[in-house]
Specification:
262 residues; alpha/beta; Rossmann fold; eight-stranded mixed β-sheet; 11 helices
Length: 262
């Protein structure tokens, strides 16, 4: 286990591989652990980092640092401490909100961002997230797919206050608009069977810049990196391999992934 001391508190992270840095940010249910498969795949060409946000996994519980802005500040401090420059960001659920905030406010160091099951409005998140125990959330969202319990084994370490705090100052739609205006390559990915986060609206998808794209994984739920790992990891590696500054559409993503996800 690797740790770094940030603002007088322990932050847990793991790292694999060598090359351009990719930062993985987990969601409300779980920790860095469910990114292992994606980290292993990307580590053949990239340096893959995954960290536990404040209040999750083995990172310190500091309630005053639980809102999205504070989690974004954690990512900034982590990059500074590790001496990491230009990055690709991959965020899921809560981590997608943090990635969206970070990419919108630190465009100079974000080369591209993948937002997985990202709620662009507070109303797009099921209320059960804030009322159910982590055990109930795991059972609800995984539908007993293989290895769910081990991949999400750290879910019970989460401070419930860290989940609740993500509601504070929820401005994802404003950040999404900002991200589009600054033309950061952005891939929105949703699992069609996700019961926790609703898909973006048609209007929100239409707002994507020429460097943006949306893909719906028909057989995936809230954790496409687990229940559709092979498909998700192919998409991830294609996205990361795209030359900087090119539109995602240069990969012919629409037709290619329409065939793959059927």
């Amino acid at each position: 286990m690797s740790v770094v001391l940030l603002d007088d508190a322990i932050v847990h992270y793991e790292v694999l591989g060598r090359g351009r840095p990719v930062i993985f940010l987990h969601g409300w249910v779980g920790s860095w652990r469910y990114w292992i498969s994606s980290m292993q795949v990307t580590s053949t060409s990239y340096r893959a980092y995954a960290l536990d946000l404040w209040g999750f996994g083995d990172t310190a519980h500091r309630e005053e640092r639980y809102d999205v802005k504070a989690q974004t500040a954690l990512v900034r401090s982590f990059l500074d401490e590790m001496g990491i420059g230009k990055i690709a960001l991959v965020g899921h659920g809560l981590g997608a909100l943090v990635a969206l905030d970070f990419a919108s406010t630190h465009k100079e160091i974000v080369d591209r961002v993948m937002l997985v099951n990202c709620a662009l409005e507070k109303e797009q998140v099921a209320s059960r997230l804030y009322s159910d125990s982590t055990d109930k959330l795991v059972n609800w969202l995984t539908s007993d797919f293989p290895d769910a319990q081990s991949a999400l084994g750290d879910a019970t370490k989460a401070d419930p206050a860290a989940i609740l705090a993500s509601q504070r100052g929820f401005i994802a739609n404003d950040l999404y608009t900002m991200l589009n205006k600054q033309h950061t390559p952005c891939l929105l990915v949703n699992g069609a069977k996700d019961e926790l986060v609703e898909q973006p609206t048609i209007e929100q998808i239409r707002e994507l810049s020429m460097l943006g794209h949306h893909i719906l994984l028909e057989e995936s739920g809230h954790f496409p990196m687990l229940d559709s790992a092979a498909t998700f990891n192919r998409l991830l590696t294609d996205f990361l391999a795209l030359d900087s500054g090119l539109s995602i559409k240069e990969l012919d993503v629409k037709e290619e992934w329409r065939r793959r996800v059927r």
